[in-house]
From TrEMBL:
The modification N6-(pyridoxal phosphate)lysine is found at residue 184. CDD domains: BCAT_beta_family. Signal peptide: none annotated. The lineage of its organism: Bacteria, Bacillati, Bacillota, Clostridia, Lachnospirales. Its cofactor is pyridoxal 5'-phosphate. Its EC number is 2.6.1.42. SUPFAM superfamilies: D-aminoacid aminotransferase-like PLP-dependent enzymes. This is branched-chain-amino-acid transaminase. Pfam families: Aminotran_4.
């Protein structure tokens, strides 16, 4: 198979239309067989549930080429399960796990020419999503749904090294207790746009959101979970029912314990405690770990010992081990690497 002629290492994170996408429709209480299509446009009734009341959920994972030339995805079973949880919370039908895995495999295979070569640092971003497709005007769940998967090649997250970022403690809330913070719903992102645009205007790369009820505990950023390192090298991640359960975070905790022999703690993290940590990072599919050098809390600066030049040593070790597992340099736990071809 001949790869597309793209400047892989210089791609950004922008939509590039690829050849095929997957579509399955839900009607009269069941999903149809699903198929690949070349049509990148979605044509729906003007009153579709997704347009009127934002009934839509999504997932994000990447397909990439390992050192030995295989095209793989990382723990897609967890994306399938999380999407089922997200759908349930928005009164949408679950797309079955085996169907999800098959659909990811079919879509990536059909776009194999768009999967960046090993060593480029680029990946094929895979975006499964589901939306209410039938007309809804009185507030209620739609009766019909569409599940789709699109793919788009994206460049290396860090061009020229992982430079620590500066973030701010936000005055906006991302998620309410007992709300939808724990599911991957478009609505969580719509309401975070004003907060992130404001943060960018003020010169910050990201927002640190606190728990909405007491505004004293660390939750997450708009699209990544926090991971902290204590002075005695313990890995700490915030625990809350309104945090999105990041697959990267869960994988990092496993790697810390089982590969690096580090102690891990998943617990509430008071903002007050944050200055005591020696390293701070954000974790998610896109960057795996992205280092935070400084957090600004209403004029008060929290500067981590790891500084503003490079990722701290413990996070670096975690990052190297997890990306090593992903790329096939380090033996993966059973079931983590899903081979496409
Ligand atoms: C997707 C997402 C993450 C990261 O999850 P991964 O599974 O690691 O990619 C973190 N926070 C939010 C709000 C998200 O939507």
């Amino acid at each position: 198979m001949k790869k597309k002629n793209l400047d892989w290492s210089n791609l950004g994170f922008e939509y590039i239309q690829t050849d095929k996408r997957y579509v399955s429709n839900y009607k009269d209480g069941k999903w149809d067989d699903g198929s690949l299509t070349s049509d990148a446009n979605v044509v729906l009734n003007e009153c579709a549930g997704v347009f009127q009341y934002a009934q839509t959920v999504f997932e994000g994972l990447k397909a990439y080429t390992t050192e030995d030339g295989r095209i793989v995805t990382f723990r897609p079973d967890l994306n399938a399960e999380r999407m089922m949880d997200s759908a349930k919370r928005l009164e949408m039908p679950a797309f079955p796990k085996d169907r999800f895995l098959d659909a990811v495999t079919q879509t990536v295979k059909a776009n194999a020419a768009w999967v960046p070569p090993f060593g480029s640092g680029a990946t094929l971003y895979v975006r499964p999503y589901m939306l209410g497709s039938s007309p809804v005007i009185g507030v209620s769940p739609a009766k019909e749904y569409q599940f789709r998967i699109l793919t788009t090649p994206v460049g290396p997250y860090f061009k020229g090294g992982a430079k620590p970022i500066t973030i701010k403690v936000s005055d906006f809330d991302r998620a309410a207790p007992n709300g939808t913070g724990h599911i991957k719903a478009g609505l969580n992102y719509a309401m975070s746009l004003h907060a992130i645009v404001t943060a960018h205007e003020e010169g910050y790369a990201e927002n640190m959101y606190l728990d909405a009820a007491t505004r004293t505990k660390v939750e997450e950023t708009g699209g990544a979970n926090f991971v902290f390192v204590t002075k005695d090298k313990k890995i700490v991640t915030p625990k809350s029912s309104s945090i999105l359960p990041s697959i990267t975070r869960r994988s990092l905790l496993y790697v810390a314990k089982e590969y690096l022999g580090l102690e891990t703690e998943e617990r509430e993290v008071p903002l007050e405690e944050v200055p005591e940590f020696s390293e701070c990072g954000l974790c998610g599919t896109a960057a795996v770990v992205s280092p935070v050098g400084k957090i600004v809390d209403h004029g008060k600066e929290i500067c981590f010992a790891s500084g503003m030049d490079e990722m701290g040593p413990v996070l670096k070790q975690l990052y190297d081990t997890l990306t090593g597992i992903q790329m096939g340099r380090i033996e993966a736990p059973k079931g983590w690497i899903h081979v496409i071809e």
